[in-house]
Every structure is written in C-alpha cells, then in structure tokens.
Amino acid sequence: MKELIESQRNYFLAGHTRSVSERKKNLRKLHNLILENEQVLAEAIYKDFKKSFQATLENELSLPYGEINVAIRKLNRWSRPRTHLTNLSNFPARTRSFPVPFGVTLVIGPWNYPYMLSLIPLVSSLAAGNTVVLKPSELTFYSSAALAKLINTNFPKELVYVQEGGVEETTELLKQKFDKIFFTGSTQVGKIVMKAAAEQLTPVTLELGGKNPVIVMPDCHLKRSAQRIAWGKLHNNGNACVSPDHLYVHEDIKDEFVQEVKRYMTRITGPDPRQSPILPRMVNEKHFDRVVSMIDPEKVVHGGTFDRDDLYIEPTIMDGVKAGDKVMQEEVFGPLLPVLTYNNLDELLKLLKSQPAPLSLYIFTRNISLAKKIMREVPSGGGMINEVVMYFINMNAPFGGLGDSGMGHYHGKPGFDAFSHHKTVMIKPTWFELFLKHPPHRKIYYRIFRSVLGRSFRNFWK
C-alpha cells in the first residue's frame, strides 16, 4: 500500500491531474465505463443482496451519472480564481483565491449503496484534481470486485485504484499518509477513521447516519404524508442514511395515519413483499439479526415476518413504541418503522434537542412557517418539510451531517470544494510602500493608525 500511495503522490506532484481538460477527460471515461458495464454491475449487486436491475439503475448509477455531467459542465467555472476585496492597509494589492487539489485522497465507501456512495465522492475528488484510493465495503463482495475490475483495468493505478479487502486492509490504509479522507458509514467507525486521520493531521469528511425522526402534525395532508413516508421507508429496504427512522405522530390522527401508511406500503410492495423488485435483502446475517432483534411482536401492526435463510424481513410497522424500547436505542437501518405518539409539541422538540443530531429531520404539516422555525431550532444535518429522502439527490445544494451524523458537505460544487484547498494569494506592486508599518514609530503614526482603525470599525457597524 505504501508503494501505491507513493506512486500516486509522485503522479500528482508531476502535475498530471492539474489541467481541467485532463480532469474532464477522466470523468468522461468513467461515465462511459459505467454506461458500458451497467449489466455487469447490476448482476454483481444482485448477487450481494438481490437488488434488481431497475433499482440499480435508479438508486446506484443515476446520481453518479448526474454528478459527472454537472462536474464536466461546470468545472471551468468551479476552477476559476475568485477576486476578493483588499483592506486599506494592503493598498494597492490585489487579493485572489483559487482551488487547488489536496493531493492523494482516500475514499471509503459503505455497503448499503456500494456503487453510488463510492462513485459520487470519487467523481468529486477526480474533478478537483486529486488522485484516489477507493476502498469499497467488503460486505458487498461481488459489487466491490466488479467496481475494482472496472476501474483498475481501465485507469492507471497512479490516478485511481480500488483497494479490495476487509478490516485489515482498511486499517492498513488508515496508517498511511493521505492528504484527504472521505468516509461514509457508521458513527462508530467514523470515530475510528477520524482518530487515525488525527495522527496524520489529515482533513476528513464524514458522512454518517443517525435516527432520523419524522414529526407528523395533526394538520398534515394525511394521505400524501403517509404515501411519502411509506415510500421513503421502503426505499432500498430502509438501508439508507436518510431513511425515516421513526415517527412521532400526533395522538389525534395516529390511528388513521398508521392505517394509511399500511395501505401505501402494501400498494408499493404488492400482496407478497418477498417478490417485490424494489426490496433488496439484508446484506448479511449480522445485520439481519440486529434488525430482527428490534421487532416486538406485541407491537407489530403490519408485517413482522422474516426468513433468515433468505435474509428477508417483511416491511414492518410497530405501534405504541416507547422511548425505552430496544428499537429506539440505535439506528434501525432496515424495513422496520416504529410509531410513537405525542400531544405536546414543545415537549417533543425539547426531547429532540437533547438527542444527538440526526442526519435528517422530517416534518409534515401545512404550517410551513412553524416547520421552518423547528428546522432552525432542532439540530440536524438537513431535512425536508412534507417530504423525505429526496433532498439527497439535489446536486445543487450541500449535503452533510452534524455532530454524530457527520461533518463536511458534498454533492456538486460542495463536493468539489470538499476535495479542494482554497488558497489565498495577494499580489502587491512595488511602486508604493505603507510607511506606517516600518519602525521607528512616531506618535503621529499612532494617531493616524487609530484614526484609520476607528474609521474602519465605524464603517463596519453601519
């Protein structure tokens, strides 16, 4: 690994990744390779957890295509220097900042979206002019192997290389000196990554998770809200960092609302959810057992069946859930939807503010001004009003977590910025020199200095 990283560093220092035209060329090549190998990638991911070809195109490949297209179209603009105002003390200098690539970067991808959540940061890093070591998850063996074959046989390893392997290989990678690390995964592993990065003073972006709460107010559009929540929960079988984790439904509408969610879940999956093409399986026995252990049969009002041999869990709703129940102690990350009730919004908000910041907060209400107020006051990485999940696919806005749900942003321009250092450079001509800065300093100089400084402060506060 040390030799690989050294070869990438030499490649970067030689300037091979600097030109915008070369970056665009690499991005187009990646786009075409994915396009030409869609069937191969889909077959591999089906072997991992039975994700259908349609779901692979929609959930795994469409966003990387979009990220590549946006980057190619806007890369010239993103790479331009920016001119900044220069303060009076530096007259007649000119100040500019411009993005420069970090150098050798490490991208660690998760298992739940083995293509999408590996390729999007890969695209951002290449667009910014870095070299990349990509470490996909060992839990999706076939997907990782397909991605490694696709990239390693078509790109020079000095530019981008997919490192397969498990915990041992990841641990060894984290011992190396990278210039930037991008990690997507659990909060627990995120802490390990950040600790390792701290040893090298390597900047990190962490895209983690959390228990994403959904507040359902009594004035919501009941049917539309239930429809969107049901879809969001079943998207990728609940294995999404932005998936609605649990519901807080006002007691006045709770029974009717739960019935609507049940109805829409059945409409989405059909009468036999096991045969539904939109529901992949759990990735392995460990994650299957973890989710099944959260199911309380006495509180199940929809679904509740499972088959360990097939790693299948039926979409399940649990009603009457309490804060102390097992399902509320960690992120669900599966097709299980706990429902809690509330009758006092202020008390609910106080509870949410006391908990670790989730990646997403969702609110369903017709009172948009109230929802905006809640969004400002309750900590979260992001969120939506009257919808779930969909804000993740907006490449025109930053996406990222807060606190336990992560740090930093990506997608589109924020992704480019995440893999760039913005260097400020001031250019000063020699025909003028500020005499006030040179000793010896006379009293008149101090009076002039204080006068100028005072004027600056007065102008600032106007």
Can you describe this structure?
By secondary structure, the chain is α/β, with parallel strands linked by helices. The protein folds into 3 domains: 220 residues, Aldehyde Dehydrogenase, Chain A, domain 1; 188 residues, Aldehyde Dehydrogenase, Chain A, domain 2, CATH 3.40.309.10; 30 residues, no CATH class. The chain has 15 helices and 18 strands. The protein has a 7-stranded mixed sheet, sandwiched between helices. Helix 9 links the parallel strand 8 and strand 9. Helix 2 packs antiparallel against helix 5, helix 5 crosses helix 14 and helix 9 crosses helix 10. The longest helix has 27 residues. The C terminus is likely disordered.
CATH class of the largest domain: Alpha Beta
Strand order of the largest sheet: 10-13-14-9-8-15-16
What about the largest sheet? Answer: 7 strands, mixed
Instruction: Determine the structural class based on helices, strands and strand pairing.
Output: alpha/beta
| Shape by Cα distribution | globular
Fourth-tier CATH superfamily name of the largest domain: Aldehyde Dehydrogenase, Chain A, domain 1
- On the 0 to 100 scale, the average pLDDT is 95
Tally of separate helices: 15
